[in-house]
Fold this sequence. Notes:
7-stranded mixed β-sheet, alpha+beta
Amino acid sequence: MKNIINTFIRPYFAFAASVCSIIGLIIVVLSDKNATIIALATLCLSIILVLIGIILAINKMLDQNYGKEYKGISSFYVYQTDDGIKSTFEIFRLIQCKRMFLSQIEYKFKWTGSLMPKIWSNSQVIDNITHHDDAKQWDSAILKFKKPLTYNESTVVHVKTENDDHDGMAQPFIYCRLESPIDIMQFRVLLAYKPAGYAEKAIFERKMISQEIDSDYEYIESVDFNCLYKQYYHVVVDPSPGYIYRLRWVK
């Protein structure tokens, strides 16, 4: 704390004091009216410089205490299809701001089908969508908050995609990148087209984020299929960060 104050705040105070000293000499030889104008301008400038120093110091402390712009608290993923061709994928993430102000975040995703999905949000404004034909590169979008978040303020991030697998190219799985600790992850896959009595288990697996998109995954566990509701449902509490987690089923 002391080092940050010495680095960011003290120089602004020193500069403001120097400016005031020089202006003081000028005031001595000027009329009262001009002296008043210069004094007020100097005061305003000094206050602005001190505020800038304080803001920079606070941002520096926040950056040192928490490297990411926000903290993830929980994530919920829902995939739904009635016929195995057209589907929706929906994400709800509860995050907490770890900067003085946060106006937007980046969202990375990858649909394995041949048609780029439609993407929108009920809570944020989606902008600058970037798509890569290379299967090894993540697609991305910028999610802009309708009102900037302040430090420790929480909000729910929402993203929904509408997907079309008319040629059967899409792979049967959903996954997420977990770059920092989180309290809980929930996966729900609703497959209405599955026949009665279907009981094939899904596979829950992971790999390190640093690996390529199409590299091998590490098996974690199997997930039962709920025949009544025709869905896979899986909850992970306190998952390890630094991995891509994937829930994969038989198409």
